[in-house]
Amino acid sequence: MIGDDRIFSWLEHRAGLRRLAHHPAKFETRSLEQNEKGAKFVAAFGQRQIRGFVGFVDLVDFSTKVAGKPPSEISNYLRPFLSGVLNAARRCDALIDKTIGDEVMFLIPEMSDDGGVPSVLSMGSLFECLCQLRSDLNPHHAFRIGLSFGYLFVDRIEGQGYKEWTIVGEAVQLAKRLTASSSVGEEHVLGSLGVLEREVDQTNFESILSTIAGFSTGITYVVPSVRAELKGISPYRRAIFVPKSEPCA
Q: In terms of pTM, does the model score above 0.85?
């Protein structure tokens, strides 16, 4: 797992391993009986349902652009994109679930219930950073973003000599599917955000959208009048983030 030390300190606070006065801050050691020992994230959130943002970021037409190139050249091409996304995620309190090729998957768990930073504020900060990264990278590194907010289940996968955490839920599939649709005929789209109708009502959805867009004077959002059907996805709400007339800041 990749993340900033502040977030791991907070996860240890959630797990009862350490005591934080507020998020994030210096801590003092505290032990609790029956506390599960293991990965900090699983100890804090494992084997239970949580709320949070899940997101995917990948490069547009990656396979086409690197077809026929040697692995070392592909690696050099990926490096500024991957390092840029990972650094942005770390600065904005996101946790990187995995990177596969040109794809990055991240999670921002909801922490406000325990006095932590509301996930929508971290998501707004991260989206602004990704918008700036998109401007900084050359056009050959154009990327797309798919986001969702909802309920997730944190599980631990174990094998002989192996332990890993995973998050599952329809919100994960929704974010993944929205990533793939973010660049189809929508070159101006900065990213897509979706929520399942059964989990987030329209009022709360609008609040999430306005908070994220409010982090940058160069970003606004649009709710499409026609919602595309996504096979295997329950009824959902979707909005797209687009640049205003001025560049993203």
A: no
